[in-house]
Every structure is written in C-alpha cells, then in structure tokens.
Amino acid sequence: MQNCTICNFNLKKINEFVFKCEKCLFLCSNLKPGYGREIEGINTLRKENFIELIKVIKYLNISKKLKILEIGSGNGHFIEECIKNKIDITGSEVEKKDCENLKKKFPQILQIKLPIENLSHNKFDKFNFIIFNDVFEHLENLDLVINQLDLYLDNNGKILINLPSSDGIIFKFSNFLRRIGIKKFYNRLWQKDLSSPHLSYFNNSNLKLLFKKHGYNSIN
C-alpha cells in the first residue's frame, strides 16, 4: 500500500484490509473494487436524506437553470425526488444493463465509469451540480476522478458528496468492537465480501483537504 492519497503521509495497517493515514486519518482498503446492487432496507432513510439534499441544492444554486448530474443512480430514488421538484436531473450508471433498466423509468441516463478510461470516446455535457450519493467511497484513483469531474462541471459548478463518515457514531462503535475481537460489524461497514466494497472512509476534514488539493473551495 502506498502513502496517503490525500496528504502523502504514512499509512498504518489496521487489519488485513484497512490502512489509516497517521496524519489526516484517511482510511482506505485493499478490497477489490466492483459494482453491484444497492443495500436493501434503507430506502426510507435515503429518501429523507435526498429531500434535505435537494433543499441544500436549491439554496446553493445561483444559476437560472438548475442542471444536475448524479454519479451512480442505483434504483433512481434521487432522480425521482428531483423530478418531483421539477429539477433537470441526469442519472448515470457504470454497467450498460443497469443503464438500460434505468432508462425504462427515466430518459436521461448516461453510462459513466469513473475514472474515464478513454476521453475521446465520450461527450461531456455541462452541469451546475455533480452529486455522489453513497458512491464516492467506492471509487479508486481518486485524484484522477476529481480531475475528470471538471469535464462535466459548469463554470461556478459545485460537487456535493453524500457518504458515510469515519467520525460517525456507528463507525466508531464498530471500530471499538473490532478492537475487542468482534469484527463482523466493522467488516459490514466496509461492505467486505459484497459486490461493491468501500475503498475509502473519510471524515469532513480530510475530504475537504482532498478537494482543496485539486483547487476546489469548500462550501462550509
């Protein structure tokens, strides 16, 4: 495992698949990246979260026309909430089959896999907002991903990232259990042995630091 992606400091091995930066506290795994189904049983919580997220977007929007790109739309719940609010939303998925299934419900769906392997084969529309809903923590090559987001982002555009935090109570409690030998809750938070495991866990500070490194200013 190399040095920290965010601050280039040393990474300390936590267990057989997790490493922690000793400076900025960024957590990363050596789990194999993948794509798969959304986690079941939390749709109600997500919808409530999406409603609040749309309020934030409306508050932050300074453009006459609000145009959103969601990276990794899953079952399309965020798209549904945007449509209810008459917001121009374009969804995306990695796999062709998932895109085709989403297009049966929503016309505006792109096939996007980040990082983009061949820029010449893609057409890039511009958006006021790029949204990651429980997706960013599954991505590899984060520096390249962030650099490529500018291809989709309009002038003065914003990136909003909705993801679990390593500062959260649930993560801290599962880490405590791991230390006393109960591993299953910690492994579950990383989605270990599932089709799409977490490759990263951030807190608010190191996530801001990552984007600052690429010239982005934090909203709050």
Textual characterization of the structure:
This protein is 31% helix and 20% strand. A five-stranded parallel beta sheet has the order 6-5-4-7-8. With 220 residues, the chain is an alpha/beta fold. It has helices at residues 43-60, 77-84, 96-103, 142-149, 169-179, 184-189, 204-213; strands spanning 11-13, 18-21, 27-29, 67-71, 88-93, 109-111, 127-133, 153-162, 200-201. Helix 1 packs across helix 2. Helix 4 (142-149) links the parallel strand 7 (127-133) and strand 8. It has one domain (40-213): Vaccinia Virus protein VP39 (Rossmann fold, 3-Layer(aba) Sandwich).
Write the layout of secondary structure elements.
Layout: E1 11-13, E2 18-21, E3 27-29, H1 43-60, E4 67-71, H2 77-84, E5 88-93, H3 96-103, E6 109-111, E7 127-133, H4 142-149, E8 153-162, H5 169-179, H6 184-189, E9 200-201, H7 204-213
Parallel strand pairs: 4-5, 4-7, 5-6, 7-8
Antiparallel strand pairs: 1-2, 2-3, 3-9
Helix pairs in contact: 1-2
In total, the number of domains comes to 1
Q: What is the CATH level 1 assignment?
A: Alpha Beta
How far do the termini sit from each other?
32 Å
Read across the widest sheet, the strand sequence of neighbours is: 6-5-4-7-8
The geometry reads as: globular
> CATH homologous superfamily, by name?
Vaccinia Virus protein VP39
Mean pLDDT: 92
Looking at CATH, which topology would you report?
Rossmann fold
Strand proportion, as a percent range, falls in 15-25%
**Low-pLDDT residue spans:** none
Multimerization state: single chain
Order of helices and strands: EEEHEHEHEEHEHHEH
Return Rg in Å: 18 Å
Q: What is the total tally of β strands?
A: 9
Q: Write the CATH architecture name.
A: 3-Layer(aba) Sandwich
Q: DSSP helix count?
A: 7
Major sheet characteristics: 5 strands, parallel
Approximately how much helix is present in the residues? 25-40%
User: What structural category characterises the helix and strand content?
Assistant: alpha/beta
